[in-house]
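Journal club side-thread
Mid-discussion, someone asked how the predicted structure for our own chain would compare to the paper's figures. Pasting it here so we can look after the session.
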Amino acid sequence: MKKRQRSIPRYFEIALAVCGSVVIAPVLFVAGVFIKLGSKGPVFFQQERVGLNGKSFTLFKLRTMTISTTGAKITAADDVRVTRIGRILRRTKVDELPELWNVFRGDMSFVGPRPEVPEFVDLNDPDWIEVLDHRPGITDPVTLRLRNEETILARVADKERYYREVIQPYKLRGYLRFVRDKSWKTDIRIVARTIWAVAFPATVKPPSKEELKWSFAD
C-alpha cells in the first residue's frame, strides 16, 4: 500500500523558502534598520526549540525585545521587554519571517506543530512523542486560534503557571488532533487560512474560556 503523503513535499518547501526569502528581503532590511535604531542588540533573535524526534535546533526570528539575561520564557502583551517596533512586528507576524531559513535548513516545515522551548516539553510523555514525530512548522490550526495568546497571558498574574497548566495542555491536545489528520491537502488549507488571518486578524475565532478551562480541568 502506498504511504500517504502527510506534508507538503520537502523539495517544494525548499523552493518556496528560497523564493520567499528573496521576496521578503526588502522587508527584513527595513525591519532590521528600525530594530537597530530602536534598541541595542542584534537584528535577529535565536532560541533553542525542540524539533523533529525531540532534537533541539536554533529558531531564528527578528528581535522584538530588549536584550536581557533574565525574564520569563513566555511573552505576554504587557511584557515591558518588548520594544516599540517589536510590538508592531509581533502583531503583524513579520518577526517570524526569518523562520524561512529554518524551513530551508530542514528544521521546520511551513505547516506543523509550533516548536516549543525545552522547558515546556516532556520527552517521556507519549502525547509529546507523537507530536514530535512530525516536523514543527511556522503555522498550524492551534497557532491560528491562539493569535491572541499574549493578550490572554497579560490577564493573569502567574503567567508561566497559567501557560503550563492551561495554555500548553490546550495546545498539545490540538496538536494531537492536527497531526493525526495531517496531509498535504490540510497543509495547503492551513497556509491559505494563515494568509487570510494575517490580512484579516479579526476573522480568527480565539478559543473560548470554556475550552481553556476544559483543558485545565482535564
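Post-session note: DSSP finds nine helices and four strands in the chain.
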